Amino acid sequence: MKWNIYLSGEIHTSWRDEIIEGCKKYNLDVDFSSAVTNHEASDSAGDVLGVPTESFFRDNQSSKINAIRTKTLIKKCDLAIIRFGDKYKQWNAAFDAGCCMALDKPYITLHHEDIIHPLKEVDAGGYGWAKDTEQVVELLNYIINK
Predict the structure, then answer these.
(1) Using an 8 Å Cβ cutoff, are 84 and 90 in contact?
(2) Is residue 123 in some structural domain?
(3) What domain range is 123 assigned to?
(4) pLDDT of residue 67
(5) How far from chain centre, in Å, is Cα 102?
């Protein structure tokens, strides 16, 4: 079986590439998908419909366009990896975790120990918590190959 894994969360580090490369080392039969990771492209997704004069409406319009991609890819995934970084609050990642729960899609969270408390509900809904990308790759190897 080819696994479809959705990579959700922060876009400011190379964690996605680390997981993809790690899975290649194990020859895992996986396809990866993700939200748009180019910050400016994501922020301007709705601009083709006209650029609103207030930032709230621009953000709202673009978030709805981005949600088409996000919801579709989450519905199609077999498993999601949801990354919470240290520098920014990833409300979108928390929302993706909620979508996974509502759709009965398993997910694994990826974050450092210092944000366990604010993510306790998100972690409780997941099937595992990894501290680094190496742990994620090892979990994927086990899930897919064992």
Answers:
(1) yes
(2) yes
(3) 3-34+71-145
(4) 95
(5) 15
CA atoms in the 13 A half-sphere facing the CB of 47: 7
**Residue 135 falls inside a structural domain:** yes
Q: What is the 3-state secondary structure (H, E, C) of 60-114?
A: HHHHHHHHHHHHHHHHHCCEEEEECCCCCCCHHHHHHHHHHHHCCCCEEEECCHH
Statement: residue 119 has pLDDT above 90: yes
CATH code, domain carrying 22: 3.40.50.450
Task: Give the SS3 label for residue 115.
Answer: helix
Residue 46: per-residue pLDDT: 97
CA angle 89, 93, 98 (to 5 degrees): 125
Q: Report the alpha-carbon distance of residue 95 to residue 112 in Å, rounded.
A: 19
Q: What total of structural domains would you count in the chain?
A: 1
